[in-house]
Structures are given as structure tokens and as C-alpha cells.
Amino acid sequence: MSSSTKASRIGEELWKTRVDKVNAELVTLTYGTIVAQLCQDYDGNYQEVNKQLEKMGYNIGMRLIEDFLAKSNVGRCANFRETADMIAKVGFRIFLNIAPTVTNWTSDNNQFSLVFDENPLADFVELPDDGRAQDELWFSNILCGVLRGALEMVQMQIEAHFVSDVLRGDDTTEMRVSLVRYIEDEMPPEEE
Amino acid sequence: MSYYFTILSPTDVPLFNIAFGTSKSGGDGIARFRFPDTAQYMNQFIIHSSLDMVEEAQWMNGNMYLKHIDTYPPASAYISAFLTPSGARFLLLHQPPQLPSTAASASGTSGSILGGSFSASALGGGSSRASASSVAANPTSPQTEEAVRQFMGEVYENYVKTVMSPFYRQGMEIRSSVFRSRVTAAGRKWL
């Protein structure tokens, strides 16, 4: 069985049995309000808003990984491909009940794309029509931060960013994830 | 039939408006009002003047769709209203195409106000004459009421989605092009 179908099965199973659910609109509206408020607070400086969202996500991810591992009880992934399937089919399933498609691997297996068919964070959303938001704001940028924070806690330094978003009028919503390096456990400095 | 649809906030601020024509019976979806293009504000006058009737009718029963509530005979404009629970009002003005036989008498009654407006509308009336015989041409028929109700329902659904957008603030003008195209689509489907 490929790791992808195995991961989807785990994800489905966990979603049915172990996950507390909340109303989707609660999540959507809360997140939407946060982004709208940030846009207001930073006075339409969308680069800064992206950065803040990423930072918030990073802090969420660092805690969320613990919850993820406790719930899913999965072991260490053998390689980055398996990690990608775990993220897409188990992680996203548990927390958002979606399963983005993993695709566009580079030949060195260090970079992939997550393509989101649906995105509960962005329901009802229409970006402000100020002529800049469409080009500058990554509405769901918090997800990039979540992945970075979560993977950092399991010894993977990654970089994640959105490359397209249906909110901007693109055909798909796609996030690019690249592995920077595995963080080696470092010995504490010798005490002499 | 020509339509003018507008959404007013609970405090009577216009949030959205659109004019369109019928797409039934071979209509091309283009509005042809009986006013010349320079007097399109007449639609707004007529529709806003029905607000008193809306306010009178809104507490009479619990329905959101208030049906046909007002008529402005000089321009044979009929107004249907729909209220959302939060107090926004959807108003639809519909005006049947000018029949050649009534054109003369109508211009006799209101020609003094509207001047030469009927030469323009007579052109429009000619091309949409086919729809005059259909049920939709009779603004008070049950079929029309039903079609307007369906239209209002669909617009309401899309209105809710639009105001749920986090970047929309209560009482703001609705500029969403998605919403506009959905209203147009609803108009094409039902009216």
C-alpha cells in the first residue's frame, strides 16, 4: 500500500473517532476577522500582514505538532515524501477536514506543492478591491507558518509559501513547501 | 419587462442597485425603461417612494417576502419588496414593456412630466413585444409573484454570503463583482 493511501486511511479514521468538531463557520469567521483586523491595524501593508500571519501560524504549529502526535500516534517518517503525505492526508484532515493534493515534486525529493481543492479558512471571503490586496495579500498565510512551526519541532527546517490562491483569481490554491535541512541533534557543549 | 433592483440598509442607505431586462420569451436581458436615459433617476424616485409602504407592511405579518406592495401608475411601475431579518430591504421595480396601443394614452397622462421620453421607449417596446403576451408581462399575476419570490430568495442567499466576507463591514456599499454577477444570473433565471 502506498504511503499516501495509508495516510488517507489514518486521517479518515482519526477524523471520525478522535477529533472534537466545531462549527466550520466559527473557524471561518474568526480567522477572517483576524485577517481583516490585521489589514486594518497595519493600514493595508499586506506584506506585513502576511508576515504576521506566518508568525502566528508558527506559534500555533509549534504547539499543534504535540497534539497531532498525541492524537495520531504515528511514528517517525522515513523520508520527506512520507512527511508530505502525513501533512496532507492526516494533519490537514484532523485539523481542517481537508486533504490537499501532494504534487509537483522536484527530482531531489526536497520540494513539493500542496494543492487545496477547498479551503475552509477562505469561505465567503472576497479580498478588498483596493487594487493591491489581489496582488499582495496571501489570505491563508497562517497555514505556511503552521507547517514551519510544526516541522521545526520534529527536526525539519522548511520554507513554505503560497504561489497561487483562488481568492486572487487563480485557478488553484497552491502552497510550495521546501525542505531546507534536517536539524541534527546537537550535543551540548562539553564541560571541561 | 424591465427591472430595477436595489438593496437598502435598515437606515435607508442604498447598498446596491442594478438594472436589467427580462430574459424570458426571447428577451435579451437589457433594461428598457420608459424614461429616457437621462431620467433614469425616476426609477430611484419611484422605488424609494415605496419605502413608506414597506414600513407599513413589514409588521403586518412575519413573511420576509412582502409581494407586490406599491404601484406607480403613471409609469406603470410595480414594486415588490423583500425584507431580511436584519432589516435590509430588497426592492424590485418592474415595468412591463410599453404596448403600442397604450403608448398614446400613457403619454397623454404623464407626458407633461416626462416630455419626449416615449419615443425612446417605444423602440424598446417594439422589440420586446413578444413578451407582452406572456404571464411575466402581467406584474400582478401569481406567476410573476412566484418568479419574484424565487429571485428574491436566490439574491438573499448570495447577499448572506457576501456580507459574511470578513472585509465587508456592516452598512458598506456592496461592490463585489461576484455578487453583481450572481444577481444578474438570478435575474436571468427567474425574471
Describe what this molecule looks like in 3D.
The complex is a heterodimer of chains A (192) and B (191). By secondary structure, chain A is an alpha+beta fold. In chain A, 48% of the residues lie in helices and 15% in strands. Chain A has 6 helices and 4 strands, in the order ααααββααββ. Chain A has a 4-stranded antiparallel beta sheet, with helices on one face. Chain A is globular. In chain A, 31% of the residues are buried. With 191 residues, chain B is of the alpha+beta class. Chain B has a single domain (2-98, 137-190), classed as Beta-Lactamase, CATH 3.30.450. Chain B has helices at 41-49, 51-57, 100-114, 117-127, 129-132, 142-163, 177-190; strands spanning 2-8, 14-21, 65-72, 77-83, 89-95. In chain B, a hairpin with a 5-residue loop joins β1 (2-8) and β2. In chain B, α6 (142-163) runs antiparallel to α7 (177-190). Chain B is globular. The A-B interface holds A 25, 29, 31-33, 35-36, 39, 123-129 and B 161-162, 164-168, 175-176, 178. Chain A: InterPro entries: Bet3, NO_sig/Golgi_transp_ligand-bd, TRAPP_component.
Explain the layout of strands and helices:
The complex is a heterodimer of chains A (192) and B (191).
Chain A: H1 3-17, H2 24-41, H3 46-72, H4 80-96, E1 101-103, E2 111-116, H5 133-136, H6 142-153, E3 156-164, E4 173-182
Antiparallel strand pairs in A: 1-2, 2-4, 3-4
Chain B: E1 2-8, E2 14-21, H1 41-49, H2 51-57, E3 65-72, E4 77-83, E5 89-95, H3 100-114, H4 117-127, H5 129-132, H6 142-163, H7 177-190
Antiparallel strand pairs in B: 1-2, 1-5, 3-4, 4-5
Helix pairs in contact in B: 3-4, 6-7
Report the CATH architecture of chain A. 2-Layer Sandwich
Rounded average pLDDT of chain B: 78
Number of domains of chain B: 1
CATH topology of chain A: Muramoyl-pentapeptide Carboxypeptidase, domain 2
Mind telling me the C-alpha Rg of chain B?
Answer: 16 Å
Number of discrete helical segments of chain B: 7
Biggest interface, chains and residue tallies = A-B, 15 and 10 residues
Strand order of the largest sheet of chain B: 2-1-5-4-3
